[in-house]
Structure to design on (597 residues):
């Protein structure tokens, strides 16, 4: 017979273990098996160009090429750097770029999508379920999308894996593509603490996020991509708050969205929510909090600016009191897609990316072909003074760090060194080799765009440059932000003027020594000129982008608190509670038996 003191000691030990586990559990993530995915390192190795070999039945390939717009899915085998996955789904992808290539008589350079799990639900490649192969349409540098995703990573935004890939189909070289991880369940599981929330890809009615009604069926363009049985009540609540007022932090990962929109504005990425087409972004809801996710950046760096002398939103610039020049240029869709190896294409949307109005795209009214009031998500954020100040600070960080000439030169030279041999042998490229060389090392490069854009951002922050946006209602500046009597865009609050007209640093930023660009608060210097981490973000291991608020780690959706318990944590806690309850019941029963004996 066990002695009572042993039973009491055992129960006491169980209680101590229970309390200890419950106290420390929030600091340890219990990863599901799928969280051990290694595809970021193995599939998206950015130190090299990955070989992708696709094998498909000749008749299936012919069917795709005859009717590419139908996005017919066919069975294929895919070999990536020597590792083969059989029986995968293969199809064309895209909208504008797809239709543009369809119009071309001499090119089949479509973007492609590979679904490793289309025919076999449990099939993947090191955890990767879906892979997009983007054709670098309208980008003679091959770099716009890559550099944009890199900036998003540096800003702490959940960003899909991406790297350069050289594609062959049935032994025929198709050329240099950018491989991008599809945003779906695997991406969510890899990047967020839970990963089982509602994912949306807005495109169509309701994608501007304007209030229609409290019936989710009226938002036909919201496009729920996961959890088919969700009542989407969190979406309705979010739409209500951003349109009608309320606590944004109850429905939005505010700081993450400010970083996202600062990066998107700096990049002048207007084939997006901030443009007239109001698409190319994802929304992800977890525990009632929405994050925004980046997608499709081949027309960033002013690539959607169209032609002519005007800018992407018909901005008027006034500098130090000078008269503004009117510009009514509107973004143009290409009248003809780029001609394969045929010189600068007619209607090429990237051709005017260095236009004055593109470089000086407004940071206070950062929309094109619409108004802030018609983009309520961005409007709600910029109408709040505290949030607007943070947004300006993030823009300053980008201008003084990521867009610095030293940083951009180093990155573009590294990429050029990597991809140039593959561009040379690319048989389907949209631009000639001379045009590629001119775009990457000529008089107007992405480095030139970035440095001039950085100067413009700093000038707008200081007040030396005022940009009036000619929007639908003719108002300058976000609502409730004020403005001058002529409707000019309002100056960022409390920014003041820099000495001698120099671009001023945001509040509490200080001056760098000898006129050098000052470091933002708590930012530190990246090693060897590497891009710095955003404030209070910390450094990822080996220079990897650190985990943003609300993602897997120890930060919640608001950025800084303890993470929400995952389902695994809840299950384990429940088991521990049951064990403790059982132990107490046993002790009570044992004690009664002892008395009765």
């Amino acid at each position: 017979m066990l002695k009572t003191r042993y039973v009491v000691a055992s129960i006491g030990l169980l209680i101590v273990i229970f309390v200890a586990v419950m106290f420390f559990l929030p600091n340890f993530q219990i990863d599901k098996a799928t969280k051990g995915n290694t595809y970021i390192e193995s599939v998206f190795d950015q130190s090299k160009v990955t070989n992708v070999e696709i094998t498909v039945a000749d008749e299936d390939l012919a069917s795709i090429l005859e009717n590419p717009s139908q996005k017919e899915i066919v069975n294929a085998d895919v070999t990536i750097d020597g590792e083969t996955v059989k029986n995968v789904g293969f199809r064309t992808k895209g909208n504008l770029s797809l239709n543009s290539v369809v119009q071309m008589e001499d090119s089949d350079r479509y973007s492609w999508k590979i679904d490793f799990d289309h025919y076999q639900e449990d099939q993947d490649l090191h955890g990767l379920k879906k892979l997009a192969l983007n054709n670098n349409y309208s980008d003679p540098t091959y770099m716009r999308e890559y550099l944009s995703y890199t900036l998003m990573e540096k800003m702490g935004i959940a960003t899909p894996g991406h790297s350069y890939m050289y594609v062959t189909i049935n032994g025929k070289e198709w050329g240099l593509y950018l491989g991008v991880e599809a945003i779906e369940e695997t991406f969510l599981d890899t990047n967020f603490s839970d990963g089982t929330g509602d994912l949306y890809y807005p495109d169509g009615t309701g994608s501007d996020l304007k209030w229609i009604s409290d019936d989710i069926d009226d938002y036909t363009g919201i496009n729920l991509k996961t959890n088919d049985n969700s009542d989407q009540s969190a979406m309705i609540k979010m739409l209500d708050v951003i349109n009608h007022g309320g606590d944004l932090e109850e429905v939005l990962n505010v700081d993450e969205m400010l970083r996202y929109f600062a990066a998107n504005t700096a990049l002048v990425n207007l084939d997006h929510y901030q443009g007239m087409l109001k698409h190319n972004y994802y929304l992800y809801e977890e525990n009632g909090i929405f994050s925004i996710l980046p997608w499709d950046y081949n027309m960033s760096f002013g690539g959607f600016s169209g032609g002519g002398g005007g800018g992407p939103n018909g901005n008027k610039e006034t500098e130090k009191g000078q008269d503004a020049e009117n510009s009514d240029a509107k973004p143009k869709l290409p009248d003809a897609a780029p001609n394969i190896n045929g010189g600068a294409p007619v209607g090429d949307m990237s051709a005017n990316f260095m236009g004055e109005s593109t470089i000086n795209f407004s940071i206070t009214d950062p929309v094109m072909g619409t108004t802030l009031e018609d983009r309520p998500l961005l409007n709600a954020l910029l109408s709040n003074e505290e949030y607007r100040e943070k947004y300006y600070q993030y823009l300053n960080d980008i201008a003084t760090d990521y867009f610095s000439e030293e940083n951009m030169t180093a990155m573009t030279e590294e990429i050029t060194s990597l991809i140039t041999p593959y561009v040379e042998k690319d048989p389907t490229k949209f631009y000639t080799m001379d045009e590629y060389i001119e775009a990457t090392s000529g008089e107007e490069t992405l480095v030139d765009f970035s440095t001039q854009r950085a100067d413009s951002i700093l000038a707008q922050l200081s007040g030396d440059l005022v940009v009036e946006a000619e929007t639908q209602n003719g108002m300058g500046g976000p609502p409730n932000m004020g403005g001058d009597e002529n409707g000019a865009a309002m100056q960022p609050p409390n920014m003041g003027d820099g000495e001698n007209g120099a671009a001023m640093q945001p509040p509490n930023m200080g001056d760098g020594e000898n006129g050098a660009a000052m470091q933002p608060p708590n930012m530190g210097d990246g090693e060897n000129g590497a891009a710095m981490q955003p404030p209070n973000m910390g450094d990822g291991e080996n220079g990897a982008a650190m985990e943003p608020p609300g993602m897997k780690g120890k930060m919640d959706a608001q950025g800084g608190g303890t993470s929400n318990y995952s389902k695994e944590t809840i299950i384990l806690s429940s088991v521990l509670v049951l064990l403790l309850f059982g132990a107490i019941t046993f002790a009570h029963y044992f004690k009664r038996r002892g008395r009765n004996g």
Notes: The mean pLDDT is 78.
